[in-house]
Design brief:
52% helix; alpha/beta; two-stranded antiparallel ribbon; 16 helices
Length: 320
């Protein structure tokens, strides 16, 4: 595959990139090197996904090599490792990229749906990069236990799955620790469908396997809601500290945030609310009547009221 160099980073690209692709990747690298947020756009069909993947993975590999070189140089304390090659010819390690990074960050790649993530992962398969990766999904997509999957409600599936896991009665889950480091799962690029096929073949749970693989993954693929919804983020134990986060098709993020922060009110909920308000008003009316019957002092009557008497009478006469 053709190799180009942008901002001191060697990038392997599946083909000779266009100028607009080089500019896009250069901006991606600039954001990563400066540790700043970036909002990048490019016309449809210009290979944005491929540029994001190749640029970010090339930068991460460069950072990894720089950190490794720096550690070796520090251990040698100025001594030459090879007689024929001086340490200065290796470069200056982290100084080459002038970053505050001392650890190699994970990359979190988020898109709106798993269908879009499958397309992204297929793009990754077309590159020369083979990072340790995983894709996170729900039980609905990844569970292969026949008893769990025959249940109709998602809540029931979660309840049965957790019960079987806690009692170690799911033989698929019991093999997760053994298979999470298996080369058949850690070396190839796998999407959700590949994980499910591998789960059936090796009789191991794809859902918990993907979560176990996340610990050593260099790039993690997930839908938006796993990042934007605090509950989902906690459920999947997603730590954003020190990570590189990429939102693909980010114009959908605003709408998704609105959906996660919204809730639905059914007619039953509204009716229940009206009934509760009526009960409170009746109690207030009874309290007022009791005050009228026991105390003729107007000031005492007013002090026991939290609303004007005429307003209360109107509300009771014309309930909502």
């Amino acid at each position: 595959m053709p190799q180009i160099q942008l901002d001191g980073i060697d990038i392997n690209f599946p083909y000779v990139p266009y100028k607009c692709q080089e500019d896009y990747m250069s901006k991606v690298i600039e954001c990563l090197q400066k540790k700043v947020n970036g909002v990048l756009e490019s016309p449809t069909g210009t290979g944005k996904t491929l540029c994001l993947l190749c640029a970010s993975l090339a930068w991460r590999q460069h950072l990894k090599d720089s950190i490794s070189a720096t550690k070796i140089i520090n251990k040698l304390n100025g001594e030459e490792l090879f007689d024929s090659r001086s340490l200065s010819s290796w470069g200056r390690g982290l100084e080459d990229i002038d970053l505050g990074y001392r650890e190699i960050p994970k990359i979190i790649y988020a898109s709106r749906t798993h269908t879009q993530l499958t397309q992204v992962i297929n793009e990754l398969k077309a590159t020369s990069y083979r990072p340790k990766m995983c894709v996170l999904g729900s039980r609905e997509q990844l569970c292969i236990h026949p008893e769990v999957m025959k249940l109709e409600s998602n809540h029931a599936k979660i309840h049965m799955c957790r019960a079987k896991v806690s009692t170690r009665t799911c033989h698929y889950y019991n093999k997760v620790d053994e298979k999470s480091t298996d080369k058949e799962f850690t070396e190839p690029i796998l999407d959700v469908e590949d994980l499910v096929k591998g789960g059936h073949k090796h009789r191991v749970c794809p859902y918990y396997l993907s979560r176990a693989m996340k610990q050593n993954a260099e790039i993690i693929f997930m839908p938006y809601n796993y990042l934007l919804d605090p509950k989902s983020r906690k459920t999947h134990d997603i730590d954003l500290q020190g990570t590189v986060v990429i939102f693909d098709e980010a114009h959908n993020v605003e709408k998704m945030c609105e959906e996660y922060a919204s809730f639905d009110l059914a007619p039953y909920d509204l009716a229940s609310g009206i009934e509760a308000v009526n009960l409170i008003l009746e109690e207030e009316a009874k309290k007022f009547q009791h005050i009228v019957n026991t105390d003729d002092n107007p000031e005492s009557i007013n002090s026991g009221m939290k609303m004007d008497l005429s307003d209360l009478a109107k509300i009771k006469k014309n309930p909502p």
